[in-house]
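A favour, since you know our structure tokens better than I do. Just paste the record in under my message, thanks.
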Amino acid sequence: MGSTAHHGGEGVGRRDLIKRSAALGLVAAPGMGLLSACASGGGGGDNDGNANEGKTSKSNPFGVEKGGKLDVVIFKGGYGDDYAKAWEGNFQQKLSITSTHTGTQEITGKLQPRFNAGNPPDIVDDSGAQQIKVDVLYKNGQLLDLAPVLDAPSVDDPSKKVRDMIIPGTLDAGMQEGKIVALNYIYTVWGLWYSGKLFKEKGWEEPKTWADFLAIGQDAKKQGIGGLAHQGKYPYYINVAIMDMIAKKGGLDAMKAIDNLDPKAFVGSDAAQAGVEAIYEVVEKGLLMPGTNGLTHTESQTRWNQYKAAFITCGSWLENEQLKQTPADFDMKFMPMPLLPDSKLPFEAIRAGSGEPFIIPAKAKNLPAAKEFMRRMLSKEWSTLFAKEANSLTILRDGVDPGVKLRPGTQSTVEASKAAGDNTFRYLYTEWYSEMGAAIEAASNELMAKRIQPKEWLKRCQAAVDKQAKDPSSKKNHRD
């Protein structure tokens, strides 16, 4: 996915986390939750893919035969497709396999007829506004279950499985009914962003507590600068702040209560109340950047780039999306949401996840090579090639060679991810229940405009949860 971020459509193909069509894609598509699927879902069945299988070994777990061909289709959005060409060149050099490369934004237009005819490519980056929905492909039995790839020996350390080298939790977005059928490859974090240059000039320190955050907002206001900007027309973004505050205050149980449609997910949840009241304080104290409620994502982000606000909420596609608007010495920085008193998660905890779904069609002609290609995507060498070409991280743990020079904002997300360690979290209701997600966004829009108070926000969000809980299909999704 990788177009330009926007509203609830997790764009990167309608950018996942809320169907955002968004910038640089870092997430999966909203309606792509674990929906029910037929028994054949994800099965490979009989196909010609195994005709290319040769002798297997630890270094060649799928029995790839040299000299074959691989049909690769890449969504050519915010990340371009040069990274895939670099992968394909490396694959040819090492295994003498030549690739047919297609870079396109017309994923559905070009691929739906091929899937329908039983002649799909071997590997696809299924992203962008014209993404073929992963849950639909899964229900039709057109996707390979990726377990054999994830359970294969890692390229970098054959004593470990591929899945053991991946950042925890990042596979979840590609799951349908308990099976991983899409590999969401790009690692994204969400939180607050600021200008290192502005902070240095003003003598501000990165705030670790909510009280310190508000103090910077007050100081900024006195100097004619907004405290917090948000992408008002797309309340997905302010929900980054609200929902992060809830998760950090109440811990993973507070997050899971929302994903699991708990009758006390919002009303009756102390964490939810504390989180929304904290964000509302920013509104009440006049610490929002003036006009931010009426702006699109790029308008708000551009004003922030012009030093008209101290902070903005966003995911880590922000830097790539704002390349042309960001002053050379801006020194973009990412930070986790500050803590409320008695929070269950530490300051370093961040919302983190994955996007840009790569799939292997069940009827791929060269299954062994497709699986090997994906296994190598999860090697340090290929992860580093991606970072060089696309200025973005992958889901591979420590996957980028230290020699790669990342831009400041992306580099700061690397540092934040290291500091977080296993203290990461990610909501899944945005992918499982897009209608509920939209209702929560609508409530947040009203809250930020001061048309409702926190108590009413909690009520509306709980009503959205309760409505979703009545849908029988929601029982198929559950987080332990």
